[in-house]
Amino acid sequence: MKKFFRIIICAMIALTLFGCSKKEGDSSTGAKVYKIGIVQLVEHVALNAAHEGFVAALAEEGYADGENIRIDYQNAQGELANCQTIAQKLVNARSDLILAIATPAAQAVANETKTIPILVTAVTDPESARLVASNSAPGGNVTGTSDLTPVAAQMQLLKQLVPDVKTVGLLYCSSEQNSKFQIDIAKEEANKLGINYIEATVSNSNEIQQVVQNLVGKVQAIYSPTDNMIASGMPAVVGITTPAKIPMICGEEGMVNQGGLATYGINYFELGRQTGKMAAEILSGEKKPAEMPIEYQQRYDITINMDTAQKLGITIPAELLAQVNE
């Protein structure tokens, strides 16, 4: 009888250990299941597309959510405190890799761990954001993709669409490092083009409407870079600019689709997809973040909101229409 009970107890222990191992491994093979944490700063079209492209690329490389990876996606809803809380949670959960979408999210995660591989996307200049030693040689546990857009070309596009512009409003969030980086480029190009500018900054979404309203009568156009707060607040922006006949040149396509006039911009789905390919190389052990330079997109597409152009009474030059139809 004692022998019988010993056999039963041993069997129960074996089943318990087997069950525990399956929680950390594939349900059929016992292979490792990687924990992928994702923290996204805020909900808007561009960042959502980057997230979707990242997941799609992982699947293309053989990493499917629910099979050999488990993705824990968290959205900070635009709150920096939420970024910090989510970053702590993902680190404490011992994630095998963390994706941070947008600069504040990336900074929050990078402050929490120096060992877990971190990929960033929708970060304009990781080096100036102090996420990497340099964009060409990151040197730590952080790498990823930049959403640096052709700001100079965007300002030239503004001049082409609004040839009589004398003063442009530069609309951005003062706490977003990526926006400051682009605005500095925009100022340089405005000076070259002989355009005066007024900086119009917001620190939270509740200020957008009033700040934009204050520009009415002072500017003939508005430029906004790939700014997460302005992107998520585009309905409030165009609710003022369109009736006031003020054209807005934006940093990315999603902002144009929400009522902006035009942009030369990047494809955020493809940017996320590019980041996902980098993640696959890290998960497979082929590469380490320290030796992977920050990657950029090489192709920029023109997007024009024809409905907005009609409401503003702006005729789009034939050469620009030809680029849209390419």
Write up this protein.
With 326 residues, the chain is of the alpha/beta class. It folds into two domains: 29-147 and 268-291, Response regulator (Rossmann fold); 151-265 and 301-324, 3-Layer(aba) Sandwich (Rossmann fold), CATH 3.40.50. It contains 13 helices and eleven strands. The chain has helices at 2-24, 45-60, 80-92, 103-110, 151-161, 177-193, 208-213, 228-232, 234-241, 253-257, 268-283, 306-312, 318-324, and strands at 34-40, 69-75, 97-101, 118-123, 142-146, 167-173, 196-202, 221-224, 248-250, 262-265, 301-304. The strands form three sheets. Strands 2-1-3-4-5 form a five-stranded parallel sheet, with helices on both faces. Helix 5 crosses helix 6. The longest helix has 23 residues, at 2-24. The protein is elongated and about 65 Å long. It starts with a helix and ends with a helix. The model is unreliable at 1-5, 7-11 and 13-27 (pLDDT under 50).
Which short descriptors sum up this protein?
alpha/beta, Rossmann fold, 5-stranded parallel beta sheet, 11 strands, 4-stranded parallel beta sheet, 2 domains, elongated, 326 residues, disordered N terminus
Number of strands: 11
Strand order of the largest sheet: 2-1-3-4-5
Q: What name does CATH use for the topology of the largest domain? A: Rossmann fold
Q: How many angstroms does the end-to-end distance come to?
A: 83 Å
Mean pLDDT: 91
What's the alpha carbon Rg, rounded to whole Å? 24 Å
Biggest pleated sheet: 5 strands, parallel
Topology pattern, helix = H, strand = E = HEHEHEHEEHEHEHEHHEHEHEHH
Helix content: 40-55%
Give the uncertain stretches in residue-range form. 1-5, 7-11, 13-27
Named at the architecture level, the CATH assignment of the largest domain is: 3-Layer(aba) Sandwich
The chain-level structural class is: alpha/beta
- Count of DSSP H/I helices: 13
**Total tally of structural domains:** 2
